[in-house]
Amino acid sequence: MTQPDELSEKNIRVLLVEDDEDDFVLTKSLLSTRDNANIKLDWVSDFNSALEHVYQNTYDVYLVDYRLGERTGIELIQEAFNTGFKTPMILLTGQDDLEVDYSALKLGAADYLVKGRIDAQLLGRSIRYAMRQAHTVGELAEKENRYRSLFERSIDAIFITDRNFEFQEINPSMVNLTGYTSEELRSMSVRDLFDKPEVYDLLRQQIDGPVHVKDTEVVLVSKDQKKIDCLLSVVAIPDKAGVTNWFQTIVRDVTQQKKAQRDLLIAEKLSMTGQIARSIAHEVRNPLTNLHLALEQLREELPPEDPGLSLYINIIRRNAERIGQLITEMLNSSKPRDLELTPYSLNEAVKETLHLVHDRLQLKGMKLITDFTTDDSEVRLDKEQFKTALLNILINAVEAMKEMTGVLTVKTISLGDRAIMVCVEDNGTGISEQNRQRLFDPFFTGKQGGMGLGLTTTQNIINSHRGSIEVESQEGMGTTFRLIFPK
Q: Most buried of 76, 447, 471, 473 (most Cβ within 10 A)?
């Protein structure tokens, strides 16, 4: 199509669709003036021929008569634009009919001219105006398509909301991130996606105030209840009067980055624990061996009939053995696990582990609720190592609950084709946020007489399976452990 800045130099190809030859001759004479010298007119007299030219799209402007035998110019315009036709079309009619005018413009006609009121200047100006308008609309459409493409193809999740923060536009990455369809999201509040609603409330205050929201760390919850670490930025979109009616929010998923950071920190802690354990083992085990030998020698030389001496020797022996056991546990909790991975049903592995705490639950009058996924639960597991890790969590849950009122809930949940989750919930005393953050630290324990290596060992085993472990807890409300294994 001819560009607007070329209208005064380039030829403009115009097709007249008119069933009256006299009107063609009249129109041709109007376009033969000096001012319209660069407008070249062709003519067809029937609807079907005109439609063929429309499909070929070889003209810059189409002049369409309202009366075309049994058909009308309105029908031609409608049929053309229904196929995605963009070239400007001007409707010509023999009488000034406001209803026809509205119909033509509503369908997309560039202009509406009444025969008998047209002169050379008006016709030429209308043709050039229609081309300029079509070019401007085309540029706008191109820009809109470009920005729409950026919106649709963005790796980051993007959504647009109104002033009440109700979803208006949602890109595919947002759908993929949350697991909800666009229709489901539009029926929800943005607040429903936040793990902690109070964080959303604080953000709303910042958005409504002078504080700019950029790369704020938040945790969203997907449809399958998976927590997603995100960086969230919100931009206000004002209208021409400066009034903000829309907000654009960009959500960047940093879950894998955060996991990598946590894994690195865990590896550093385990490495430090291993160094400490090896140092202690080296410095303590030799004198400990000598202590055992000396005790055995002393036992042989002391009178066997003295009960007091035997009591003290046994105390020394038991504590020496306990020290040796603690050193072994420290070494085992920190060193990488050598796994024997084989395909195994996670459901069956969980059931076997639950059997090991069955008696504890019965003795304390606690209730067990289970819910196992019916989807394929096979993963690559070192079954015995997994049972050790899960048993640590189950025992902690039982010890955190009160007798006769404790309820232990164990579920396996399929996370699609990518992973499967074991969820352990208790209604025990819960864990403070400060302690929750230190839960897997070596030597941290809330138990009297405990070493604080059980959950360190558990985490080490889960990580060796390329899995992850999450903990959610609230004091007085119980604790939930989530173990996630890749399929």
A: 76
